[in-house]
Predict the 3D structure of the following.
Amino acid sequence: MALLELENVSVAYGAIQAVRNLNLEVHEGEIVTLIGANGAGKSSTLRAISRLLKLQAGRIRFDGRDISDSASHAVVRAGIAQSPEGRQVLTKQSVQDNLELGAYVRHDRAAIKDDIERMYRLFPRLGERKQQSAGTLSGGEQQMLAIARALMSRPRLLLLDEPSLGLAPLIVLEIFSIIRELNSEGTTILLVEQNAKLAMQHAQRTYVLEAGQITFSGLSRELLTDERVLHAYLGG
Amino acid sequence: MYTGEYLQNILNGISIGSVYAIFALGYTLVFSILGIINFAHGAVFTLGAYLTYSLAVGHFGIGGLLADMQVPFRLSFPLSLLLGSLLSGVFGVLIERCAFRPLRLRGADPLLALVSSLGVALVTINVIQYLVGSEIYSFPSEVYGDIRPAFTFQRGDTTIVLRTVQLIIFAVNMTVLVLLRYLISCTRVGKALRAVAENSSTASLLGINVDRFILYTFFLSGFLGGMAGGLVGTSFGIAGPYFGVSYGLKGLAVIVLGGLGSIPGAVLGGMVIGLAEAFVPSDYSAYKEAVAFAYLFTMLLICPRGLLGRATIEKV
């Protein structure tokens, strides 16, 4: 059984249809990537899963439970955390407070403390800036903080929205190696990326989204050599 | 102006300024969460004053529908103030549910919420007037029990009067400010509240129930507004149901002067306006309101963000 299952999901912003009849599955332990051009509906899909956007039609199931009508905060409690597009760290609060708020749904104080230390080991730059307000961090550091903060809820499924956006190539590689490391420790990941090639190299499976609909899906290594995908998305 | 008069003015200014501060904090809390001015806050102030009066004195009012009704019990002043403020807090929650939430869920323009809160204010004040009339009341001095109503300090020509109610106001307000500061800066709930204020959709991605925090905020705001009303009522009397409206406007001057959405700004703004008013000579006391707004206009011209308002730093 899939950990996350989207069945015929449609989402709209007013009169603009963002996602239409989307079917998608993520299995426990996988990295799955959702790629596509700007405006294809990738972020809308993640926002729908996190229940920030109302479903026009369709169902979303997580771990067998229907979450289509749940509130956003309830979805986090159920085990889905999102690192949103544009990072959206709490700029006025310190790095440490951002991480503590990431663990808002948990009540095991000692373990939260250990997890914060773990995040500082995983992202040493954050450890050097514990008391700095998050607004003073660089773009790459804010991205790391957004990912670390999402991990603080100990999610079973991590949704990453454009983690490479606007970052220098070296930092992008650093972030992707951390994504792989997190996955090998057991976190299931659904990754939305514009950097299609890099995302596909890290994900077992890929969905290609075009104007709100899935046009291709399958194993990443097969799609990476597929002429049509290559031509449309990988600049080949 | 001789030294005694000077000290007396400062004392009076700090006392009333600290009430303005907690009243204005009620505005600020709602503004920082929703980005909207709650115009019904002045009506909550009126409600708090009448509730405190009824609970402490034992009857509802002189005129109106409830003129001959007795409250079946009488509470001591501190308990009346506390209960009156708690009930005002509950009223704040009702305002949220009736005037703000339905509009928010439909994604309405914030300007509409402003108008709907103004509607709630007028309806509330009219209902109060219908129930208890529009007479002027003052709290009988027995509300403090055996405590003397005032302390007089004299040395040579200098006389300073410290009214008991001023002491109470000051003590209550300092306690409230310290507790609020602790709540917002040091607790998990406070951090979550600040997260909701900064970005509500990010807050909900962290598992924070934003809707519930909005309710907490309105409760707290109503509690503070009601408490300010109770304290002002005790100190100066209740000048009819509409007296909350003029305090409501003054509260706006306080938050704009201090910087919209800034908690220390609301406190500082309250103190500045309280002190400025205290130094208006008694012959001109009818123009006190004008002083508050003169400060407001000057501030808007010199520094539109207010004393402690900050430009928002956006980093892409």
Observations:
- Chain A touches chain B at residues 50, 52, 71-73, 76-77, 81-82, 84, 86, 88, 90-93, 97, 100-102, 104-105, 135, 139, 142, 149-150, 153, 166 (CB under 8 Å).
